[in-house]
Amino acid sequence: MTIKGFHHVAIICSNYEKSKQFYVEILGVFIIKETFRKERNSYKLDLKIRDSSQIELFSFCDPPKRPSYPEACGLRHLHLAFAVANLETMVTQLT
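User: That's the sequence. What structure does it adopt?
Assistant: Structure tokens below.
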């Protein structure tokens, strides 16, 4: 058995509207489903990248700070890399 790619990655954000705007309007990722979770007072936004990979964007009012060193055990900072057609064009666009 071999891995064909990743299905999804979960990202926790502290500013939901700003993060949603970045992924949808700037990066052009598609919304699959947006859910407000009343019991947690938070949103979960399911996003789809053109190749069918997905991002689960979670919002929390006061998420815990992550360890400042990448070698920490357990949950740690996420490294997410996107493939783009032209790196220079994307850098210019984002700048």
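The longest strand covers residues 30-37.
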